[in-house]
Fold Thioredoxin domain-containing protein.
Amino acid sequence: VDLQEFLAEDDRLCLVKFYASWCKSCQKFNIHHDKLAKEKSDWVDSSTGKLVKENEMRMASIEYSKCQSLCKSLGVEKLPTVFLYSKGRKLTELSVGASKFGKVRDAIAQYSSFSPMDIDFATTIQEGGEMIKANVLTTTATAAPAQAESSDVVEERRAKIEALLTTSAAKASSSRKKWWS
């Protein structure tokens, strides 16, 4: 199953773990991840591949060495890394080792309590931040100065995105209590 198909199967929270079999930090992380999977993830019969019990969230693991191009296209730079998705849209990403696995649990608890409107807002913020980051990286990585956009154009785009995000945040905070810490 391809990642986008997996994420689109239903609206529950999805945790996608990126790891490498040779990574010692990943091996320690997996102990906590496996415990979490037993508590919160669907149960699938390994011999038949059929769903035995639907739980509160879905989980997938992607081995870096086997899916390098996918991992790179998603911006995975450190291992282990966890992405949380809802409705096929990325909510957050965490690059933490076993000693900070509590941050993964905290993020799951936070996003599990979100209303559909909160999820939409969180994904918009995440996507806006990624757009800003991509714009900065693209502009920085441009080899030929003649082809690069002027710094005024880049700043104008960045200002528009930041204004949009600020306006969205102000509307959200005035209409309901803050959900971020």
About this structure: The radius of gyration is 19 Å.
